[in-house]
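**User:** Here is a favour to ask of a fellow structure person. Please take any protein you like and set down a full record of it. No explanation is needed for now; the record alone will do.

**Assistant:**
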Amino acid sequence: LAVWSLWGNGLSMVDAGIFLGMYVFTGLGVTVGYHRMLTHGSFESKPGLRALLAIAGSMSIEGSVIAWVSAHRRHHAFADKEGDPHSPHLDEGPGLKGVAKGLWHAHMGWLFDPEKTSHERWAPDLLKEPAMVKIDKAFPWLILATLGIPPLLGFAITQTWQGALTAFLWGSLARIFLLHHVTWSVNSICHFYGKTPFNTRDFSTNNWLLSLISFGESWHNNHHAFPTSARHGIGKGQLDVSALVIRGFERLGWVRNVKLPSPKQLDAKKR
């Protein structure tokens, strides 16, 4: 529908602005909030910002906060081994067919796996945090919010139902589609193809092509080498928007205890 709209009418500045604003807000909610802050404890934040980032991550519709954190912690515990919920390397068979099956499983096939990751085992800290439990339970309402805000903005700005519809197509549907596939590509492509400057016990890779739209998440070999680092783009010229945002929060006094690998730690893991 979004492609049809683009072909027939072009992309308006209003729709582009709503798409970009919602993509950045919810995308950083995943990368800065769900991933670096809540999963890995890369930094500590003030309670209000912590809750806002968890809400923003929830509005990506990639899963409720406790479910997402649980699955990702499990992934790191068993990366590319039995128990990893989304590895492309687990017994998918030989040849191109096996490669395709593995990449499909890592990209989105794993989402249909009936086996559920235990929240009690992998996220007991969040289950003890009242704010996170409330945000987790509010996930259905946050889905409605993330779908509803773009058309409401589109209508408010354009004062037309057509403006509301195109804002829904771009700011809700197309934005969620792109954000999901970028996140899933880190799980699939960045465990299959790319550079490996650091020694890790898995198949994680760095892939520069995804670095901008993933907000730095595609420096994935770096991340698996130093999972608690608040900065994934630790090499020269490696763009990491999420790390820049965290640095900005730190300068404003909103976050503290930002973790980064030391030069000695970096040297010890280089290939």
Summary: The beta strands are 44-45, 255-256. The chain has one domain: 2-269. The radius of gyration is 19 Å. The mean pLDDT is 95.
